[in-house]
Sequence to fold (204 residues):
Amino acid sequence: MNVLVTGGTGALGRDLVVALRSAGYRTRVMSRRPGTGADWAQGDLATGKGLDAAVADMEAVVHAGSAAAQPWRLRATDVHGTRRMLEAANRAHVKHFVYVSIVGMEGIAYPYYRAKLAAEAIVAEDIVPWSTLRATQFHTLMEIFLGAFSRLPPGSFSRLTRATSRRGWSTWWPASPRAGCLITADPRCERSGAWPSHGSRPGS
Fold:
């Protein structure tokens, strides 16, 4: 199987690429940055440039590309970019599209989560046979937050903590933590044969 991994150099993408190649799949990396090799494609979700070339001859797409650390690019990359990627996958007759999302986002006023939920809704429009994988939050997000806090003036963190305590932590954290789950809303994933025969199928 030929698999395109968007965001293939990111926190999730780079490990996923290694795992797929170790399992014997031809895996193409898509990144905004230029790279070398036959299985490297430069593509920009925010503009659509290079997406058709990246997805050419691919049977499946794992969409892990995101602008998580660049909130000013979220709408263009995570929301509109997901639609652009799906439309390119549709033109290339991709058999299955896997979108990587996050558990427990509903009701949380965090721009990144809102962008992910909007992208989930676009994936569910059924442009390409699809699955949405809601994973638990990566530890790298906490590294970003803590790195930002480390640059604040002395005393800022304690003021933020008091303000958050007055509002209640429920504003920031789901009331009941949930384990990760694979949401499968498209029965065609069983019929298309796009999933590896030795791997777990959606819903199993």
DSSP finds seven helices and seven strands in the chain. The two ends are 21 Å apart (CA to CA). The mean pLDDT is 78. The first strand starts at residue 2 and ends at 6.
